[in-house]
Write a structure and sequence with these properties.
With 367 residues, the chain is an all-alpha fold. Helices cover 72% and strands 2% of the residues. The protein is built from 18 helices and three strands. β1 and β2 form a beta hairpin. The longest helix is centred in the N-terminal third of the chain and has 25 residues. The radius of gyration is 30 Å and the shape is elongated.
């Protein structure tokens, strides 16, 4: 019939237009391609999902302005179904997020989180935005909402957000407010080393030496491998409390439990001060046999250099330089999630943005 022929003719015309549009894309003429596709969108509403996929492709290629243009044109269509409008809005939110226009992205995701189909995705993106803008109060509120709807356990992240809030108060010297926030964080994540370190730091600022000491001691049970992070603060506590031999005793106990080479060296230094070089060297040698580490070897060589004959000293110095060089290139921390390595501790991994996954490296080259 005539109507079938007419429909077929129109479809052929549309297919031809699509081929032209795709040719523009393949020949690296994206703006001409977008013009063609936008024109097609006005004629044929069945192609909306194809256009959404194209917009997503542009965004992934880093061409956010083009993705936005496509998505804005889709949203501007009066006959668009509510379902497709929401999908196009979500994609537009992702465009703004990728472009770093966070306030517009936030506005879109705030609207979309009321829709059950987009609630979890929108809450997750809002959480990413609040972390990027360091709006920790909003992050706490959003993570609670996300946990409630998704039933996913996010207690580790929540505790870190409270720690970030506490840090802001510490920076303003509002120590009692900070302490309250840290107590909240500690109730949420009882194994949080960060909470113990920060709480001890606040207590030291307030000269609550015994309390600080108890906060540091919690790390022995929480994660012994982080105990080296407490050494500077511990030394201050023991100096202030003036209990002879107590610092050395605690360090020896920590080494026994597997605290690693940094704590081993601190213990050896204490022995050296109290009992001399020979006792320190003997202690190091015994421990290095049980758990070898380059840093332990470095300290042992240093002790032997002082007492070596002139001939032996040259060989030891050469060995010392080689170990030093080797250690200078080694990172101290690694993310358990993405493998990011660094020479400093990050609570939030710069590589994958996971919280609490960066840990001290263990073994012969690490702790």
């Amino acid at each position: 019939s005539w109507s079938n022929k007419s429909l077929l003719k129109q479809q052929n015309k549309l297919s031809h237009r699509y081929i032209i549009g795709l040719n523009y894309l393949l020949n690296e003429q994206p703006d001409k391609a977008i013009d063609t596709f936008i024109h097609l969108l006005e004629v044929d509403s069945d192609t909306v999902e194809t256009h959404l996929a194209l917009g997503s492709l542009f965004r992934k290629r880093g061409e956010v302005d083009r993705a936005l243009r496509l998505h804005q044109n889709i949203i501007a269509r009066p006959a668009l179904s509510a379902e497709l409008r929401q999908l196009a809005l979500f994609e537009m939110g992702m465009d703004y997020l990728t472009a770093g226009v966070l306030d517009r992205a936030e506005h879109i995701f705030e609207d979309l989180k009321t829709n059950p189909s987009y609630r979890l995705q929108s809450l997750q993106q809002l959480l990413n935005i609040h972390q990027a803008t360091k709006d920790w109060e909003q992050a706490v509120a959003t993570v609670k909402e996300l946990q409630y709807h998704s039933k996913v356990d996010m207690h580790v992240e929540t505790a870190h957000f409270y720690c970030e809030l506490a840090q802001q108060e510490i920076d303003k010297t509002h120590l009692s407010i900070a302490s309250g926030l840290l107590r909240k964080a500690g109730k949420i994540d009882k194994k949080s080393v960060r909470v113990s370190l920060m709480q001890a730091g606040v207590e030291i600022k307030q000269h609550y030496w015994k309390e600080a000491l108890n906060s540091y001691k919690k790390i022995l049970k929480q994660d012994i491998h982080f105990f080296s992070e407490a050494l500077n603060g511990l030394e201050k506590c023991f100096d202030a409390l003036n209990i002879p031999g107590a610092y050395q005793k605690l360090l020896l106990e920590a080494v026994e439990k597997g605290a690693g080479s940094t704590v081993l060296l601190a213990a050896a230094n204490c022995i050296r001060s109290n009992e001399g070089d020979v006792a320190a060297a003997e202690y190091l040698t015994g421990n290095l046999r049980a758990s070898p580490s380059l840093r332990g070897l470095q300290a042992l060589i240093e002790l032997h250099v002082m007492h070596a004959s002139e001939k032996g000293r040259d060989s030891l110095i050469l060995l010392q330089e080689l170990v030093d060089e080797l250690l200078n290139t080694k990172p101290g921390y690694r993310c358990e999630n993405c493998g990011f390595e660094s020479r400093q501790l990050y609570w939030n991994c710069p590589g994958c943005q996971h919280w609490g996954t960066v840990k001290p490296i263990l073994g012969i080259e690490g702790e």
